[in-house]
UniProtKB/TrEMBL annotation:
<keyword id="KW-0288">FMN</keyword>
<feature type="binding site">
    <location>
        <position position="154"/>
    </location>
    <ligand>
        <name>FMN</name>
    </ligand>
</feature>
<dbReference type="InterPro" id="IPR036661">
    <property type="entry name" value="Luciferase-like_sf"/>
</dbReference>
<feature type="binding site">
    <location>
        <position position="224"/>
    </location>
    <ligand>
        <name>FMN</name>
    </ligand>
</feature>
<dbReference type="InterPro" id="IPR011251">
    <property type="entry name" value="Luciferase-like_dom"/>
</dbReference>
<comment type="similarity">
    <text>Belongs to the NtaA/SnaA/DszA monooxygenase family.</text>
</comment>
<keyword id="KW-0503">Monooxygenase</keyword>
<dbReference type="GO" id="GO:0016705">
    <property type="term" value="F:oxidoreductase activity, acting on paired donors, with incorporation or reduction of molecular oxygen"/>
</dbReference>
<dbReference type="InterPro" id="IPR051260">
    <property type="entry name" value="Diverse_substr_monoxygenases"/>
</dbReference>
<feature type="binding site">
    <location>
        <position position="225"/>
    </location>
    <ligand>
        <name>FMN</name>
    </ligand>
</feature>
<feature type="binding site">
    <location>
        <position position="100"/>
    </location>
    <ligand>
        <name>FMN</name>
    </ligand>
</feature>
<dbReference type="Pfam" id="PF00296">
    <property type="entry name" value="Bac_luciferase"/>
</dbReference>
<dbReference type="InterPro" id="IPR016215">
    <property type="entry name" value="NTA_MOA"/>
</dbReference>
<feature type="binding site">
    <location>
        <position position="54"/>
    </location>
    <ligand>
        <name>FMN</name>
    </ligand>
</feature>
<keyword id="KW-0285">Flavoprotein</keyword>
<protein>
    <submittedName>
        <fullName>Monooxygenase</fullName>
    </submittedName>
</protein>
<feature type="domain" description="Luciferase-like">
    <location>
        <begin position="23"/>
        <end position="377"/>
    </location>
</feature>
């Protein structure tokens, strides 16, 4: 199975109020060693990659203010992830390294140049988590009144991706010669213009960045709406989802396989990865006690502020999923709304109760956690998992020490990396 870490350049990645845990460091967020150590942990645990989720502003949707989200410690990006990814590349040889970049707010040449540079520095391990963004507070930081309609955002995303692919293809693999004796630095006949002119963006090229060992960065995507799934099926090498139950996972994966086939793509070309948050204990009772302690740290107002940000609507005024979808307008993440609706259905609670619950935790021994992962993996619900740190960095330390060996013993996880580039390791999990 494939494993990908969900990361933030801040104290909280996914689980509300986890930054309050006494083992979560708060004084090293701006230290290079924090990210270098993280990269080493993930590679030792045989993760395919780690990617940074990112946002372009401070969420102010809940109660029309950023006070609760920032003041109570939500998922904040306190540094641009592109500044720490080269640090992580420097201390690893196999780990994939991804960043989240919006197609709505950025031009293709900037995206292609930045990620192409990371891909070369890491010798073929870069990945791009493609997002179209989903909130008005981000749009206003880029001179826009609000988010464009979702279909328009995905149409632009298609155009930006086409342009980036054209730019990455400007150089043939052997265009760079660097022959001192002959005086030939590059074979210009193997470099071409991109000449992309689309409905939203245009770029002439050529790129100043040569081709990387893996050709281009891998594409990660998490679209859950019908239009988002269409985009993911066309472009993604890995698709993230937030399905709440195994049955939901099976349905999502089957739908994506149908969409991939319709585009002439094989299902093996794209890994489907649901999110899984774990609490690991040497015994079941220890794991449950650790999970209960985490629950005791939760700030209910932060949960509401976080859910409001994901759904693009002030949930202090909303009771149903239907109301949330209407009130959100062009904002909000469909996958998050779907997950909350799935939680409500699975647990027999209302939508209003579901949005007030933190992320579900899988608490258990390494064998118990491996049992669930194996069940989902072998029964068609996924091709692996996205794992956020419940507590940073302890979750990854414990996972690598206790769960990775259990998965390896069962033949479910690589013991060594099969390839040098991220693309090679995605194609051959080992």
């Amino acid at each position: 199975m494939h494993l990908v870490a969900y990361l933030k350049t801040g104290p909280t990645a996914s689980y509300a109020s986890a930054w309050r845990h006494p083992s979560a460091p708060l004084d090293d967020i701006w230290d290079a060693e924090r990210y270098e150590n993280l990269a080493r942990l993930l590679e030792a645990a045989r993760f395919d990659a780690g990617f940074f989720a990112d946002g372009m502003g401070l969420p102010d949707i809940y109660k029309n203010s950023f006070a609760d989200y920032v003041g109570r410690g939500g998922q904040l990006s306190l540094i641009d992830p592109m500044t720490v990814l080269p640090l992580m590349a420097r201390v690893t040889r196999h780990l994939g390294l991804g960043n989240t970049i919006s197609t709505t707010f950025n031009q293709p040449y900037h995206i292609a140049r930045s990620l192409g540079s990371l891909d070369l520095l890491s010798r073929g391990r870069a990945a791009w988590n493609v997002v179209t963004s989903a909130t008005n507070y981000e749009a206003r930081n880029f001179g826009m009144d609000g988010m464009p309609p979702k279909d328009d955002r995905y149409d632009r995303a298609d155009d930006v991706l086409e342009a980036c692919f054209a730019l990455w293809d400007c150089w043939d693999p052997d265009a760079l010669v660097m022959d001192r004796k002959s005086g030939v630095f590059a074979d210009a006949s193997k470099i071409r213009y991109a000449d992309h002119a689309g409905p939203y963006v245009s770029t002439r090229g050529p790129m100043s960045i040569p081709r990387s060992p893996q050709g281009r960065p891998l594409i990660l995507q998490a679209g859950s709406s019908p239009r988002g799934r269409e985009c993911a099926a066309r472009w993604a090498d890995m698709i993230f989802c937030t399905t709440a139950t195994k049955a939901d996972g099976i349905a999502f994966r089957a739908d994506m396989h149908t969409r991939l086939a319709a585009l002439g793509r094989s299902p093996v070309e794209c890994a489907i990865l649901p999110t899984l948050s774990v609490v690991i204990g040497e015994t079941e009772s220890i794991a449950r006690e650790k999970a209960e302690y985490l629950d005791s740290l939760i700030d209910p107002e932060l949960v509401m502020a976080s859910s409001s940000t994901l759904l693009g609507v002030d949930l202090s005024r909303i009771e149903t999923a239907e109301e949330a979808e209407v009130a959100a307008g062009n904002q909000g993440i469909a996958g998050s709304r779907d997950r909350m609706s799935q939680v409500a259905k699975a647990q027999g609670i209302s939508f209003a109760q579901a949005v007030r619950k933190p992320r579900g935790l899988l608490a258990g021994t390494p064998a118990m956690i491996a049992d669930v992962m194996e069940d989902w993996f072998t029964n068609g619900a996924c091709d692996g998992f996205v794992l956020p740190p419940t507590v940073f960095p302890g979750t990854y330390e414990e996972f690598g020490r206790m769960v990775t060996p259990e998965l390896q013993r069962r033949g479910l996880l690589r013991r060594e990396y099969a390839g040098r580039t991220l693309r090679e390791n995605l194609a051959n999990p080992g």
